[in-house]
């Protein structure tokens, strides 16, 4: 694997694109130049769809050609139709807490993001490597703690992490897997290089949007799917179900699987219910469950029925009032007893959040080296750990160019984007860092890649990230879903893609290599 | 099936049926006005009386006029049994169990709710045409429930809920006529009376079915049709028999040592209906008969709650 992934995939996919053209000779003679996206200016940013001359990148020519032939008005009309369909399906959130308040869908953008086959293979390999190292780390940190004893990660970092769960020390999850479902956030910089921005190892959400975005796009652009050789994502629920079944306690023939949700008022409730429906399993709340003799049961119309596997979308701290927060009403008293006794499997295992800590993140490349003896395929965004004296000095001196993040916040909160911040805000963060250096990291402000996005009836570039989903059944049996959630910062110039901060989403098209299955087949 | 899910499905189905029947109440009343000489009978106050919520109404409204009554029954979101409230609760219940419903089912509830909510937000008095569309939505809902869901225990809870609610509401539609009749006994047998009974039959979509069986409007036969017809799907006997059938299916699926009191109660009602005839109903007073029936339907619902929705450690 090349150490500079961006240049390698660009040169290789060039040759692959000509292969495409000849395979599809009736539609596109190979002599024909790649189309140029009309009336679109990449504005000096790295654009996922076109190069700096607005010429289609390899694997995007069918899409660019189609966009050129459809008027902005038609695109806008179809986008509205898609949004209406989503509204009908109830993929909405309530704008006001008032029960009769207006309802809105997650903003959806009709222009898909294309990931060329060669780039995808690079990402896939990198993610498999990374999740392999992270699972080894979790086994180690709740077991012998070799990585601390060998001085690779400072003990202080682990001991002071809000997400380290001493209650999990000594646990051995089935198949040696702690993190079964991961959604890793990737970004690309101005050169197109892919970086890992964060590892989401707790309850990553968004996969329902991947599936629904695809469903509505297929309905609206069926011919385009035929021509673009997009890889399918629709078997995710089946793969997830298989993953969950594989975790069942030994000797259980037909395991009962359920999804555990905090309830209908949780912001990701739609997804919990969607996944349960797609897998054909029960969606349970804490109040539906009880523990008797270290076994978990759900209350059914037929009496109590034992549950063997829980895909829990409830945070660690709320899982079991006997062990974690005593005041939790979302969990089940005794769940951890049943878990220790091996009578219930939990995905993800409690305690995975330690590897989500933004300071621990900085050590993942070292983990890959320590556990696997390999060089990271996907790089971290260069990260300064404020606990380190030299790093801290550098951060404090360069607050105007850096992005500062608190270790345990998510959803776009607890972040300082230096170049966009006021002197007072920078001052405040400087103070916070000096007070509690353990809790902060800093990264250079990257110029995130962009994708053409429909604004009114014309296309403008907007910054994106990418969250692929990884399913892990055993250390050697890992699936990366060919696709992912492309989040887009809809506000002009904004780098914040979180849906809680005005972000939307796009369908993500991973292009098939010849011979690979496509969404239209 | 999860007890919580069964309970939500049961209520969702009742609330959908309730919304539909409110529309039928209002539609039949609007038809009354069109077809009768001016000021013959005030049709609006009786409509409040049959809901059983007259007290609530009097606390919030000063007059029994058309705009107030229509707003109260259709769009008042403070009143928990209005059409809008029923649809909102049905949708909340559906949201809590949507993984057990077919996608079409949830989408239909969602559409139906938005349709009525949008109309409510426009703050314009709805017309007969609006109620007609609501009835269409409701028919669509029933078709989707039956045509896209496996007829498993969840469907039986939904079917039971909808039929218990429908039996109750059919009895209340009949009761509307009782309240309207009181002041004008002279009208019995006149053209006006004919029109009123016809409107009543239209409200349960039974006008044509009745005509095919009996040709002419006759009070005894209409009441018989409403309560005792074995074939028409909105008659009280049909609803009770169907609910009883679904209870049998539920009981079979939920084999348990517990005695099921809902089944006993519904069987009791079914037998009583089978052993009563329309002459006895009219002789004993139709309103009293309907009152008793409504209490019995309530008791069956309460028994269902005890039998299936309250699962404890000892179960």
Describe this structure in words.
The complex is a heterodimer of chains A (521) and B (315). Chain A has 521 residues and is of the alpha+beta class. Chain A has 16 helices and 23 strands. In chain A, the strands form six sheets. A five-stranded mixed β-sheet of chain A has the order 3-23-22-19-18. The longest helix of chain A is centred in the first third of the chain and has 25 residues, at 117-141. Chain B has 315 residues and is mainly α. Classes of the chains: A alpha+beta (521), B mainly alpha (315). At the A-B interface, helix 10, strand 7 and strand 9 of A face helix 1, helix 5 and helix 6 of B.
What count of helical segments of chain A does DSSP give?
Answer: 16
Instruction: Tell me the quaternary state.
Output: heterodimer
Low-confidence stretches of chain B: none
Q: What overall form of chain B do the CA principal axes indicate?
A: globular
What can be said about the biggest beta sheet of chain B?
Answer: none
Biggest interface: A-B, 30 and 33 residues
Helix content of chain A: 25-40%
**Radius of gyration of chain A from CA coordinates:** 23 Å
Strand tally of chain B is 0
The strand line-up of the biggest sheet of chain A is 3-23-22-19-18
Largest sheet of chain A: 5 strands, mixed
- Rg of chain B, alpha carbons: 19 Å
Globally, the shape of chain A reads globular
The helix-and-strand class of chain B reads mainly alpha
Distance from first to last alpha carbon of chain A: 31 Å
Q: Which regions of chain A contain 5 or more consecutive residues with pLDDT less than 50? A: 1-29
């Amino acid at each position: 694997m090349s150490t500079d992934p961006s240049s390698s995939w660009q040169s290789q996919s060039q040759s692959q694109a000509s292969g495409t053209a000849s395979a599809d000779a009736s539609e596109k003679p190979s002599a024909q130049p790649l189309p140029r996206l009309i009336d679109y200016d990449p504005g000096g940013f790295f654009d996922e769809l076109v190069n700096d001359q607005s010429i289609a990148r390899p694997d995007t020519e069918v899409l660019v050609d189609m966009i050129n032939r459809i008027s902005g008005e038609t695109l806008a009309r179809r986008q509205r139709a898609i949004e209406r369909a989503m509204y009908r399906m109830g993929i909405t959130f309530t704008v006001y807490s008032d029960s009769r308040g207006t309802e809105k869908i997650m903003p959806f953008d009709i222009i898909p993001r294309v990931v060329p086959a060669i780039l995808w293979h690079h990402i896939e390999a990198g993610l498999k490597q990374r999740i392999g190292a992270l699972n080894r780390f979790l086994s180690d940190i709740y077991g012998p703690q070799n990585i601390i004893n060998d001085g690779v990660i400072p003990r202080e970092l682990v001991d002071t992490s809000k997400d380290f769960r001493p209650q999990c020390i000594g646990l051995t999850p089935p198949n040696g897997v702690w993190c079964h479902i991961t959604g890793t956030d990737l970004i690309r910089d101005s050169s197109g290089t892919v970086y890992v921005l964060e590892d989401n190892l707790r309850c990553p959400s968004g996969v329902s949007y991947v599936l629904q975005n695809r469903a509505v796009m297929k309905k609206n652009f069926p011919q385009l799917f035929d021509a673009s050789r997009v890889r399918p994502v629709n078997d995710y629920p089946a793969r997830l179900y298989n993953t969950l079944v594989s975790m069942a306690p030994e000797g259980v023939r037909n395991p009962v699987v359920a999804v555990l949700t905090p309830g209908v008022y949780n912001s990701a409730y739609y997804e919990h219910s969607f996944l349960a429906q797609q897998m054909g399993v029960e969606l349970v709340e804490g109040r539906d469950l009880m523990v008797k003799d270290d076994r978990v049961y759900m209350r059914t119309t037929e009496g109590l029925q034992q549950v063997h596997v829980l895909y829990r979308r409830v945070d660690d701290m709320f899982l079991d009032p006997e062990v974690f927060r005593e005041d939790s009403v979302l969990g089940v008293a005794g769940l951890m007893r049943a878990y220790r006794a091996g009578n219930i499997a939990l995905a993800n295992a409690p305690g995975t959040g330690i590897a989500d800590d933004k300071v621990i993140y900085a050590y993942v490349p070292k983990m890959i080296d320590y556990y696997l003896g390999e060089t990271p395929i996907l790089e971290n965004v260069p990260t300064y750990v404020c606990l380190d004296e030299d790093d801290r000095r550098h951060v404090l001196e360069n607050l105007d160019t850096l992005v500062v993040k608190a270790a345990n916040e998510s959803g776009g909160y607890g972040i300082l984007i230096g170049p966009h911040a006021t002197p007072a805000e920078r001052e405040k963060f400087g103070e916070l860092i000096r007070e509690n250096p353990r809790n902060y990291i800093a990264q250079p402000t990257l110029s995130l890649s962009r994708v053409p996005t429909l604004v009114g009836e014309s296309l403008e570039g907007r910054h994106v990230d990418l969250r692929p989903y990884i399913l892990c059944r055993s250390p050697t049996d890992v699936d990366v879903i060919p696709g992912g959630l492309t989040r887009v910062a809809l506000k002009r110039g904004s780098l914040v893609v979180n849906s809680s901060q005005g972000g939307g989403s796009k369908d993500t098209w991973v292009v098939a290599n010849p011979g690979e299955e496509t969404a239209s087949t | 099936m999860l007890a919580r899910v069964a309970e939500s499905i049961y209520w969702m189905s009742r609330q959908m049926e309730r919304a539909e029947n409110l529309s039928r109440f209002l539609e039949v009343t609007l038809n009354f006005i069109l077809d009768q000489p001016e000021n013959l009978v005030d049709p609006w106050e009786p409509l409040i009386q049959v809901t059983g919520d007259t007290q609530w109404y009097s606390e919030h409204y000063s007059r029994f006029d058309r705009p107030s009554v229509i707003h109260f029954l259709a769009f008042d979101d403070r009143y928990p049994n209005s059409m809008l409230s029923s649809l909102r609760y049905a949708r909340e219940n559906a949201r809590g169990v949507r993984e057990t419903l077919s996608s079409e089912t949830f989408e239909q509830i969602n559409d139906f709710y938005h349709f009525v909510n949008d109309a409510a937000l426009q703050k314009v008095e709805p017309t007969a045409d609006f109620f007609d569309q609501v009835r269409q939505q409701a028919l669509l809902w029933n078709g989707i429930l039956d045509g896209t869901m496996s007829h498993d225990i969840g469907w039986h809870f939904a079917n039971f809920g909808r039929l218990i609610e429908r039996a109750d509401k059919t009895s209340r539609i009949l009761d509307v006529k009782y309240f309207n009749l009181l002041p004008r006994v002279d009208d019995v047998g006149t053209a006006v009376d004919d029109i009123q009974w016809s409107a009543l039959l239209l409200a349960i979509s039974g006008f044509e079915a009745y005509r095919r069986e009996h040709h002419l409007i006759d009070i005894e036969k209409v009441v018989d049709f409403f309560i005792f017809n074995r074939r028409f799907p909105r008659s009280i006997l049909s609803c009770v028999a169907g609910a009883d059938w679904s209870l049998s299916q539920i009981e079979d699926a939920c084999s348990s040592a517990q005695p099921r009191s809902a089944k006993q109660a519904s069987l009791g009602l079914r037998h009583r209906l089978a052993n009563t005839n329309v002459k006895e109903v009219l002789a004993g007073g139709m309103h009293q008969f309907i009152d008793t029936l409504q209490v019995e339907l309530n008791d069956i619902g309460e028994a269902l709650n005890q039998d299936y929705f309250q699962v404890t450690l000892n179960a």
